[in-house]
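Entry 14. Ran structure prediction on the chain below.
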Amino acid sequence: MTMLKRWAIFLFLGLIVFILPNPIQGVNDTRKYLTTGPWYPASPEELRQVLDGLFSKATLKPVTGEIKGLVGPHAGYAYSGQCAANAYKQLENHGEIERVIIMGVSHRGAFYGAAVGDFKYDSTPLGLIPIDTEITSKLAKEKFFRKDNEIMQNEHSIEAHLPFLQYIMEKNKNKGYKIVPILFGYLEPKDVERVAQILKKFVNDGTLIIASSDFTHYGNAYGYAPFKTKIKENLTALDNGMFDLIKKMDMDGYWKYREKTGITMCGFIPVGVLMSILKDTQSANKVELVDYYKSGDSGNDYTFSVSYGAFVFYKTPVSQTGISMANKRSSASSWNSFPGIMPSPDGGVELAQPSSGLTAQEKKTLLFIARQTLEDNFEGKSITWEEIESRFPLTPTLLEKSGVFVTLRKHGELRGCIGNIIGVSPLWEGVRNNALNAAFEDTRFPQLKKNELSKIDIEISVMTPLKQIENYKSIRLGTDGVVIRMGYYQAVFLPQVATETGWNLDQFLGQLCLKAGLNSNSYKSREMEFHVFQALVFSEGEQGK
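Output, structure tokens:
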């Protein structure tokens, strides 16, 4: 397998997350918004203009009851914004909402259970949103919950929803609400139910529950391509199979479907928690799919595609005779994260990273760290700096920050893959952390079992530094991955895209511009920035365990 082929497992086609925190002066207890640029404009005026456009195209469905829950996507607004607007459009003219429990998935901090912060406010360019700190403080003391401001600060899956929430709440003149932001790592089925029981204590008549999720991530770059023909039709069937189970609130079928299909639905846990809460509390007895489309629908290219779905959960009014009351309402008519990718929370492209070269000894050291980390974890231990130093010297290269992915394969098949594109920790530490992430936090797969470890081959991919180039004509098709940036528009193509598509340079860059939401000839603009990167890939199979 070539290095380019291996790249397909590590990265995805879409917008790379370069997170640019936006400080709110004078507010020390506020979670600062960070996903402008890749997701939405930093300017309040521009953001409001984007939202105006999305909501003007959204359709108000004939929902026959009070909405208690929503599911919506968290990709860049150029991709999933219309789907999210269709979800929040259903809240138009909704009654007073005093509390919004909003649940996302952690892409950048691997852990078991759920996390909350102790911030008093969340924020977007549209302003501050008060957090119900009384509830978050109580949750932090509950089993399965932790307080972790860093995880909360560096995650986008909740934040991507907040401008939509602010927009519709402002339209409804609902000013008194507070939010309860919760991020989820992995949970076993029995613990999803237990977490739902905990959250039920904070659900009242004025509570809205929101779960953030994208659906199927399809393509070699996502490590998920279960079919090669009739991709559009098969993707639709795959997504609809999951949608049917959500609409039935069939928790048993929900878990079995993921196990059977391996569907790459990043918000699987928060959606499951939402279903469990509403089903158990009898708060909702009806679920409607209000929007669905795939990123591949644009251009009819499903080589790399992400599915977006929007749901509303509501309680149908029932008369004394038990017959549904049809109190109908009038009808009017990336970038993405997934379990195998953990984008850097540092932002920018000038972070320190090691050179692309590693000695044979350094490769051996990193592979040892990855395997020893997993072995120790099953024994209830954690490999220490001293243990590593006693076996192998930690060279300056291994101590430098680097983007790195760890991939697990079982009998040649993908068994887990998580990493960082840009370095946020020393290389040896990134390998240690992502070995655990790949084994236990890649939600596309069940957690690694001890009896599987001997059958696992570990592969490590070390990212080369992102390098800005002045002339796009110097891009080496099939060798360079490319990041383009212009204003807050941004997108990436992997090195193998040109090889697999047969595009020439103009086609390659034209399609990349379209992926970023720009005109196809925007790459010729003087304002366009180009960055290239490669990867160094090695495995136990090549080095010898």
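Residues 1-26, 318-356 have pLDDT under 50 and may be disordered. Will compare against last week's run tomorrow.
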